[in-house]
Amino acid sequence: MTKLNCSVATCMYNQDKLCRLPEIKVEGTTADISDSTACASFVERKKNTFSSAYEGEQPNEELGIECMAQRCVYNKGFNCCADQISVAGNGARHAEATRCATFKIS
User: Fold this and answer.
1) Burial 70-104 (b: 16+ CB within 10 A, else e)
2) What is the tens place of the pLDDT at every residue in 58-92?
3) pLDDT tens for each residue of 93-106
4) How many domains does the chain have?
5) Residue 51 structural domain
6) 30 within domain boundaries
7) The whole model's pTM is what?
8) Which end of the chain is more exposed for a tag (fewer CB within 10 A), N or C?
9) Is residue 90 part of a domain?
10) Cα dist. 76→26, 33, 83, 92 in Å?
């Protein structure tokens, strides 16, 4: 499991820079820079609400990360093997405005 620090405050799954989902997916199949990645699990928060599907779930310090960024040094069999990652995109209104800030080309 990977530790996640998420600064995407506009995501309905974000609580205190942690994620309420058990796992997330990072897109960016052909990415060669961080800005070409995105958190595919992002859903825009409306009026300070959390996802009703995960209401009552505690935010996770560690979670599974499915990674499509094939050229990232931390991608091992489409899973992130980094000890910790940061997802950025404060003010995002859609997934494409987020990014894996830890992305590093292999």
Assistant:
1) ebbebbeeeebebeebbbbbeebeebebbbbbbbe
2) 888 899 999 999 999 999 999 999 999 999 998 99
3) 999 999 999 999 98
4) 1
5) 2-100
6) yes
7) 0.89
8) C
9) yes
10) 13, 18, 13, 28
